Amino acid sequence: MSEPSLRQASVKDVPAILSLIDLGVSQGVNLPRSQHYVFQNLRDFVIAEQGERIVGCASLHVLWKDFAELRAVALAPDEAANGLLRRMVDYLAADGRRLGVSQVLAFAFNPEAYVALGFKEVPKETLPQIAWRECMNCVYFPDCKESAVILNLDGASEGVWA
Question: Domain total for the chain?
């Protein structure tokens, strides 16, 4: 079977994106996202498609002039070990570079998966206030259960906040 193709999400993909995210929520690896959230941020999403089936999604949301956040990363269980996370991160990192972003932040329940892709785990307290904007609406606020990881897109070992 060929590997999934990556493309920008469209309105028709929203139900499948929500299903993938909800599956991740039930497995303890994703935060819940509403249909409203996905529609409002649809332009940020990339999906991985295997034939007619959506097997992965992720979004890159620009927070500031040189800083973006990787959000709502979800994979179908049968794709978790197939390198799809790396492909989606690489796709969105390339988009971040095109936009002029030098760092990508992710909050993750599984930081080791991101560290394996070149992210660096950082203390959450070192992040700028803008990184916390959505945290106020999180089901875990104020007791965050995620770790913060940063990927420097410009190749520097140290970045703006890491």
Answer: 1
